[in-house]
Amino acid sequence: MKFWVRYVAICLFVSLAMWTRAGQNTDRPSLQGQPTQPEDRPTLRPRNGPGLDAGPDSSTTNDIRKLMRIHTLYIENIDNSLSEKLIEALETWGRFRVVTKAKDADAKLGGTCLESRRLKHVHSEIYISDRNGAPVWQDSIYRPFSPPALDQAVTDTAAIVKAHLQQSVREAERR
After folding, report:
1. Handedness of CA 53, 108, 92, 153 (dihedral sign)
2. Strand locations in 54-171, DSSP E?
């Protein structure tokens, strides 16, 4: 009886050792005969630059026809110099002509850019409204900072707003 108990215990120990060793072998070929490639492990640090994982398109177009009729845009003052970054980004795009007086514009772009130093993120709410104040387009973006610096996070936010607005215009042109 003791022999069989020892025999079963040794078999269990050997099979456990073989099982754990097989689980550690990551260089084994896959079922298709191709070696498996190591995956990029997720990190808590944000990537840098606007081409980074900007997340899902969080913009909403409220009136497609009005968006397509906008040629001149007045950009209101937005916190953390986001308005200056948006002026630079939108002028390089060339779709809208940015004007300095609200009465000369077809629509105005406004919003907020609030940083939370404790949570280390920037939350920006951007909207475009027509001359009468009716909503045309809006976007909401969260960006981490520290690292990168707050200024870089605001610059990335402006680039993401531009990319979302470009996407909205492309979708509107398809319709």
Report:
1. negative
2. 60-61, 72-75, 97-99, 107-116, 121-130, 135-144
> What confidence score (pLDDT) does residue 146 get?
79
Q: Name residues of the chain where pLDDT drops below 50.
A: 45-46, 48-54
Q: Report pTM.
A: 0.68
Identify whether 55 is part of a domain: no
Q: How many domains does the chain have?
A: 1
C-alpha triplet 23, 26, 31: angle, nearest 5°: 90
Host domain of residue 64: 60-174
For residue 96, give the nearest of 76, 125, 67, 55 by alpha carbon. 67
pLDDT value, residue 81: 93
Total Cβ atoms within 10 A of residue 59 = 21
Interatomic CA distance for residues 141 and 14, integer angstroms: 55
pLDDT of the residue at 117:
85
Tokens of 147: 């690292």
pLDDT of residue 16: 74
